[in-house]
Design goal:
This protein is of the alpha+beta class and about 80 residues long. It is about 35% helix and about 15% strand. Helix 1 crosses helix 2. It is elongated and about 35 Å long.
């Protein structure tokens, strides 16, 4: 079972998790968005990341890891 979070809460959690990844200290997550037609489980995604001084390869790896890990814990509330 996952915990429901608002868009603002989930965005903040995702950004903190992303910045904690190696090489991603300057990256930011401007927003998360709901996935259409998904009612249960991981119903959100990180559509965009602002790189800052981070390398795209570090960001790609980190976003996949963060999304998978947080998707097991949280879902986006309506």
């Amino acid at each position: 079972m996952t915990t429901g979070k608002t868009r603002a809460e989930l965005t903040e959690i995702a950004e903190a998790a992303l910045r904690s990844q190696p090489g991603c200290e300057t990256a930011s997550v401007p927003d998360v968005r709901a996935l259409p037609n998904v009612r249960a489980g991981r119903n959100w995604e990180i559509p965009n990341v602002v790189l800052g001084d981070s390398l795209i390869s570090d960001i790609d790896r980190a976003v996949m890891s963060v999304h998978r890990r947080l998707g097991r814990k949280y879902h986006l509330r309506d």
